[in-house]
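This part of the workshop introduces the protein records we will be handling. A record pairs a protein's sequence with a compact description of its fold. As an example, a complete record with its sequence and its structure tokens follows.

_____
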Amino acid sequence: MKKYIFLWILFITAFPIFSQENEIVETNIEIQKEKKSEDIPLDSIKNMYGARYVDYKMITYDQDTVQIDTTLTIQKYFAHNYTHQDDFEWLAFANMGQTFNKLGYDFVNNQITPKLGITAKQYNFYKVEDINYYHVPTPTTILNYRSGFTGQYLNSLFTTNFGRYNNVAINYKGLRSQGDYQRVRVSHVNFSFAYSYFNPAKRYQFRTHIISQKLSNFENGGLTESSVINFKNDNPDFSARSRINVNLASSESFLKSTRYYYEHELRILNSKDSLDQHLTNLKLGHHISYEKSKYTFDSSDTQYFDNNPNIYGTRLDTINSGTSDKTDFTETENQVYLKFNSPWILGNFKVFSSLYNFNQSYDNSLIVGSNIIPKSKTTSYTSAGANWNGKLKGIFLNAYAEQVISGGNFGSNLHVNAGFKLKNNTLARAGIQLKTAAPNTNTMYYQSNFSNLNWNQNFENIVYRTIYGNIKTKWINADAYIHQIKNYTYYNSNSVASQNTETIDYLKVKVNNEFKFGKFRLNNTIMYQKLARGSDVFRVPEFVTRNTLYYQDYFFKGKPLLAQIGIGFKYFTKYYANAFNPVLNEFYLQNNTQIGDYPTFDVFVNGEVRRTRIYFKVENVTAALTGRNYFVTPNSPARDLSIRLGLIWNFWN
């Protein structure tokens, strides 16, 4: 039956498409202009103070300015989770706030220096580029709520302008969820303060933020072997999930971080032609980021670790009954740059030089066998680069280049892409990236109470060669990536950081479309992945599909309510998914158990009333019918049938 469902999904997506929601902000605005006046929801033009809603703006790290959007779309439903990102390529653990396993990978980015590891805790960790700044005509509050499993999360943003040139944004995100299983409690806090300023002539501007993040997770190590069997057999004695035995009874991981960031620009040249149509300017800029983090793993458990010596080895501290691993990280980045904008270069050009320093330290040095694990290790880099963004006769061109000129391994990056946009909102883009980048710090240097989890090694830079393309039309949105990866760094089946010297050939194609049949819509996303080489160290499912059938319409006189009522389906083929190591907070290879080949169905009702969006969802509604074989790792089940309620509320004060 599962195979027939999957073939049916593939069959319907091959039909011609009548229309599609486009994710491009510019396109959405254009499409909205074409709507008839009676289709425009109430309160969409201006608020009671006379300010238009398009005047409420968010400025990203890359200086892109976008409207604060209060509309309801199916894409926003897909991203209504604690990460605020579409989770199509992820597998969620049972409790909200836990990590995700991967169904697909994206390697296109401009990062070449080593970064903090502990990748399983990065989903709710805000990096520099994740912080947004604002410009609003009136004080603005945005509340984002979602119910958890005996708990909830609330993301609250308050931003206001002091005059036209100063803006303050305060963001607090709190998440606490007990979970249905033993020892999966999550407690996360992210607090940030951001300030931006520009003078009336826009000759000088700056922005700064401070963020404190505390991410605490109880770690249960997954279900015991007997519990996995009882779960799959749907043993009625364990229908209350808190009765199921887990591997760890008193373990906790904790990541704490504080970051200070400051960026400012001074315009030193500004001129216009005689018609005041072409602007030329030159800006001098600088930014500095300082971040201090601490990761700890505390546990009084011993039996599970002692019973798995192939992964953990032996405990080095036998005097104390437990484990208390602590790692400190300090990261500093300084960058000076020049920006030149002129029609003579078809756009803008930026040249920069960066100083980067990363320190990882422990309480003491450690000797494990013949290996000496020092107390601390510092990595320093100096790099130089340039970035150009231009437009020529409707074709946009982007080029980015960076080279490490001193310190560590000499990483480099060359990233070029080009594309065009037609009047019918068709957008096509293609690019190539040639990059060598250092692995994350934990793979090269780590110290632990468990003998197997200690290493001090020098890995070669990872080499990425990527060709990609994207096309967006009103009918279809398709992405294709061809990756060649050499020196891929991973954690082997014994959880030891390793490097693969062979080349990985990875193809990824993802297609999205949406049918419309009157008030009914069918949104489909299918991803196909293929490995020509490297499947022994790199694992992904061959097919992943998500199909959402829903009804959308306005209700009541004056159309104050927009509602979406539907059912969602997700499926992926079997593969050897990585297992989770709670000590490292990393995923590692395993060759014993495949997961996948099970469908999950969700039922949802979404609503929009003026500036409020409401989300009601029943997850895995067919859990009792499709069998208890839904897992995210070999010993960690996905979510059972559960009811979730969410809310996003915008206040233009």
Q: What stands out?
A: The radius of gyration is 26 Å.
